Amino acid sequence: MDHIRNIAIIAHVDHGKTTLVDQLLRQSGTFRANQKVEERVMDSMDLEREKGITIKAKNAAFRYKHYHVNIVDTPGHADFGGEVERIMKMVDGVLLVVDAHDGPQAQTKFVLRKALQNHAKPVVVINKIDRENARPHKVLDMVFDLFVELNATDEQLDFPVIYASAKEGFAVREIHESNDNLEPLFEAIVKHIPPPPKVPETYFQLLVSNLDYSDYLGRIALGRIVSGRVCVGDSVVLIRKDGQRERANVTALFGHQGLERIEIKCAGAGDIIGLAGFEEISIGETLTDLEERPALEFVDIDPPTIQMNFVVNDSPLAGREGKFLTARHLKERLVRETRTNVSLGFQETEVAGVFTVSARGEMQIAILVEQMRREGFELLVSRPEVIFKRDQDGELLEPFETLYVDVPNENLGDILQSLAGRRAEIANMDHQTKSVLVKAVIPTRGLIGFEADLVNLTRGLGSMSHLFKEYGPYKGEVSSRNNGVLVAMEGGVSTAYALNNVQERGRLFVGPQEDIYEGMIVGENSRPDDLTVNPCKTKHLTNMRSQGEGKGVQLAPPLKMSLERALEYIGPDEYVEVTPKTLRLRKKILGSTARKRASSKVLVA
Fold first, then answer.
1. Whole-prediction pTM value?
2. What domain range includes position 146?
């Protein structure tokens, strides 16, 4: 076991951890000389490559001298925190990768806190030191302050620091040294990160920290062997969370070599492995050799705070692009997702074809919807809603988050005004040369749609991150969208002539020659109430020549929203229609008379 090192990598989005792993695998000779290697190998889902974020924790392994090093990548986005907590159970040390200019960010703090609480030994890598505006010494001070703030022990504060450029593939111990490889980093990993702890027990124990699914083998339990050995064909016992015991044979074992999962015959204490053989197995359960053994401790996952409805697409244009359209398809896909993604919850509702999905943040659900549309699904998605709770006295509680916003000085007033409307309480403001770092406590409801505001008000220069804090007393109404929408009164194909008249009323979401149906949202009204318009009206031909004949219609380009932006934008009585090629916004009730009737019922009630 002394030759095994299990480490997790922590970094903020775009601080270069995935590139660093590429280089570690390259320089340790893990890839064959003739192997074609993609950039950013750890980001295996298409969406991860596009968004530059890590969603699912993935494993890789390499050999250095006689050491076997397992690397687990951690998601840097707090919505995927469910993954983070479980990873820390598998590792003994962490590589903290920090940008040499930006310093540690809020999301890094979230993951690092979890690592330090689990007594992981840190190695700090200050990356991108080849940047022109790098300030490594200042960043090192910031890292040290962060460790102190997170109550690190004296031993954890005595961390080694490596300066690196993952892109150029070099690392040095002191900033003035020169080097052309990552040797100092390899040395720091094997010297400072301890081997897996020795335990007195000699029998087999494994805590399931993650799941994978294979059509051929069923569920694969991923985790670190705490003690003992296991081989293919062994009979092992699964201890469920409710204390029930179930026995089965191990049908397959997997280890890692580079990024590839390889089949192995046996594995011993300290190894991170995949194990198949149980049909139903969940994260947090224990695998061992005999029924009378005790279960291993497991970290509880933060509760989901947001939920949305997934609904079968019933729009007039349904079925044109997708191949999975029915409630059965939707249900099967959501059940499959919850098998491997533990921080997602899923429930059927009393209404046929409507499913409720709950998660830690809208980003997590938006990523699932985006994956589904790429697979060929069509569905309707409602606005994210917060999950409320009640305390012992029956008081209504709602989730609160700690929000960090980095705002240019000139936009501070607008942002503070927006935060005030969202019931945020400012905790701290740190003025830097050109920007202000605002720390606030905000109800999760207030966060919905805030990112869109931030981008608009700061013209894309502001950045934000947020962490779940706690459930607290309900704060009252939160201001949402100020403007009404323009709703199509009939179906057809939009015309430039009609849109020219419609655009005088507000901002367009559609261009000419697009398919429209009654109840579809075609733009934003410049006033607070909704307005029905006809974007499909054609020009009646007469044999009189008008004065302005021949002059082209000048249409403003329509606003096309991304999925996350659309989910934040819609109101409680609206849906986003998601198909493989198109996103449309629509009212839940399409007919205008039926809509009026429904709203008057609400007013009467």
1. 0.71
2. 4-192
